[in-house]
């Protein structure tokens, strides 16, 4: 505040009384304190108050608030006058004081009446607290929560999204990202198989903003190399790029004058598949770490959805080829025989479209290192599918390690998964290698993953992200190369909503989901399964079964089978 009126002749400043109210004000000396006379002139103020007004304390006697700042006086003079008249304090008054900046200063006022020996209010005490920084923190927190809620809403839109909706959902999400976060353009790029070029797949730009070229090759060699290494890049002003980025600077100038840019690569199963870019043309953009990391997680969700779409397209193509094979088979030849020869899965029996779909998925994913999530009701053969994937993979020379997350006590599962050092807890009499360490170079099958305790889910997430963990009782990280196959008969989507399963872990596991159909949805496979089981048990029990009554087989085909193949197997064994 600066004086705006003429100063009246200085008068002697009355000494400050030592009443209890005044002692309370003095005790709050870290705030601005002033004593105001009945004519609304300053009688006394501390240095903190003087700093707020912008004048030395000695220049305040006989000045009024109106002399210092008319806008402040307009707000406070009626309050001071009412305090003198009514003798009651006025609390919790907030005022925004212009200071030449966009937000101004936020001050918090309390006005107290000070009575003399006759009981009359002869003075008022005013306590002023500068809460500008507090307001700024609250505003930043509100903004952070708004961004967090916005990004969470975008993420949740991709939970269980159908492949037919993936492109539309991503295009809608890019538009929302640009409009909400203030970018000019957001684009998704696919890295070519030979790593020499980028091809755009999805993009949204504000009106008047130039769209990127459909393919980039040779124009940004340093950036493409960084994307291939999985490195995040961000800069607020491309003019500040080092000389090694001369080609990238030229690209930015030649394509509309890009001012700020950030790109985030994404990998699926350890392979870089592409990157997402955020650009600004009109203003310099800062790229804070918190926002960058949150966008990285969101981009991985997009990338996984696109990978599921690509996988589905390959499956549909493979199914079309299988249909052509089927049409050429003789009428009485079981399609199961052809699938057996084609895919070499001797233990998977069936001729239904659902089984054919699963077999194609196994063939497609087995040779990769991608994480697989097997979904299906109890008894549908999830472990059988996991073993088929492992046996067809480059890791088949080593045994697959199995962990049933529901069968182990919560207190022991961490030591079972990650091992422990001698003395790590009561009963740990020796060092023990965990299942992940034992599976190094092979595959680990985490059955009933939905039962994994919430406190261990973050440690599993770290293994999936970084390939390392620590044994109990030892802080030294252990690096492993393990392919994870998880299975569950529960809805992880619902578990995420209920807060019992981490959302980020769900997306890490859901890279390549395989859904196993219940037996009631593949009834045409029941005769094949029954005869295969009969053949197996005939050898075990030494009994030759030549036929099964038609009514019995029809009864089995009509039954609902809540226990699926496991229940069918038990029934055949009893029979």
What does this protein structure show overall?
The protein is α+β, with helices and mostly antiparallel strands and 575 residues long. It has four domains: 20-130, PAS domain (Beta-Lactamase), CATH 3.30.450.20; 146-308, GAF domain (Beta-Lactamase), CATH 3.30.450; 329-516, 3-Layer(aba) Sandwich (Rossmann fold); 520-574, Helicase, Ruva Protein, domain 3. The chain has helices at 20-27, 47-53, 65-68, 70-86, 132-156, 166-181, 221-228, 246-254, 289-328, 335-343, 353-366, 382-391, 410-418, 435-438, 454-466, 492-498, 503-509, 526-541, 550-558, 564-574, and strands spanning 32-37, 42-45, 90-97, 105-115, 121-130, 185-191, 197-205, 215-217, 233-235, 260-268, 271-280, 372-375, 401-404, 443-447, 468-469, 478-479, 483-488, 512-515. The strands form four sheets. Strands 8-7-6-11-10-9 form a six-stranded antiparallel sheet, sandwiched between helices. Strands 2-1-5-4-3 form a five-stranded antiparallel sheet, sandwiched between helices. Strands 13-14-17-12-18 form a five-stranded parallel sheet. Helix 11 crosses helix 12, helix 15 (454-466) packs across helix 17 (503-509) and helix 18 (526-541) crosses helix 20 (564-574). The N and C termini lie far apart (96 Å). The model is unreliable at 1-18 and 328-345 (pLDDT under 50).
